[in-house]
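Re: [ENG-882] Designed sequences occasionally contain unexpected residues at chain ends

Forwarding the minimal case from QA. Structure tokens:
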């Protein structure tokens, strides 16, 4: 699935809330550098770190004023006013370690995660495909502890990392899809979408998706509202 341009801005605003221009920011798991560019535009000095060379070369093009470095979120170096982990924790083998490292090198830690499935319109993509998928009893369910989308668990993980939670804010971000194709096309191209289309035909899936999203249709296309949580924390002294 491709996320629509601009979806991250309300989230980035919150991550940088009360951070003065001139602050140093370490953007851990910077990906293609969209948050880094946002922070630069607010007058921050930005270092982006990612384990993927491909992501870093995209980030260098997106945010040419930042410094980018290859590295591992589980082992940080240096000293920064703010360490940001934007939509990264769910991708790490050890989020506790990464948050502890962020607290060690950062005066302030700001980390974001998705809200629970039922809190975001993104769930509607799954709901639209549901009739075309095998019964739930036949599907593999992910093993392991509850995800960080559970706010109580997110707080607990931060505590285990030696952080003091200053706040856990909710941010609602509009995802705007200008037309039917921008909504349905990426879904049909996904693994689940291709599975559904192979069983029922692309046209039937397309119609089901558009029916499901009809209540989210507005004059300029579709607007989905998705929820994120932003942790604001400091290392326990
Ligand atoms: C979902 S992307 C988020 C990118 C970016 N922060 C954003 O919001 O657009 C997750 C990023 O984490 C990076 N990543 C995954 N494991 C990592 C690790 N151990 N250390 C550093 N970066 C890592 C991936 O390469 C990817 O760019």
């Amino acid at each position: 699935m491709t996320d629509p341009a601009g979806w991250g801005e309300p989230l980035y605003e919150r991550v940088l809330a009360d951070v003065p221009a001139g602050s140093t920011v370490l953007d851990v798991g910077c990906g293609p550098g969209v948050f880094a560019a946002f922070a630069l535009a607010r007058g921050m000095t930005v270092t982006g770190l990612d384990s993927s060379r491909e992501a870093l070369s995209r980030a260098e093009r997106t945010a040419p004023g930042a410094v980018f470095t290859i590295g591992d979120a589980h082992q940080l170096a240096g000293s920064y006013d703010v360490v940001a982990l934007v939509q990264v924790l769910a991708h790490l083998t050890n989020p506790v370690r990464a948050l502890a490292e962020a607290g060690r090198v950062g005066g302030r830690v700001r980390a974001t995660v998705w809200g629970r499935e039922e809190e975001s319109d993104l769930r509607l993509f799954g709901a639209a495909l549901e009739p075309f998928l095998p019964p739930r009893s036949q599907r593999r369910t992910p093993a392991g502890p509850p995800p960080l989308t559970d706010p109580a668990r997110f707080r607990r993980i931060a505590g285990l990392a030696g952080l003091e939670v200053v706040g856990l804010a909710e941010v609602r971000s509009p995802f705007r899809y200008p037309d039917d194709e921008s909504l349905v096309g990426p879904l049909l191209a996904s693994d689940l979408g291709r599975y559904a289309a192979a069983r029922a035909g692309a046209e039937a899936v397309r119609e089901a998706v558009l029916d499901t999203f009809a209540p989210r249709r507005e004059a300029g296309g579709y607007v989905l509202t998705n929820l994120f949580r932003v942790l604001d924390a400091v290392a326990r002294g």
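QA comment: On inspection the terminal residues look reasonable. The chain has one domain: 9-235. Proposing we downgrade this to a documentation issue.
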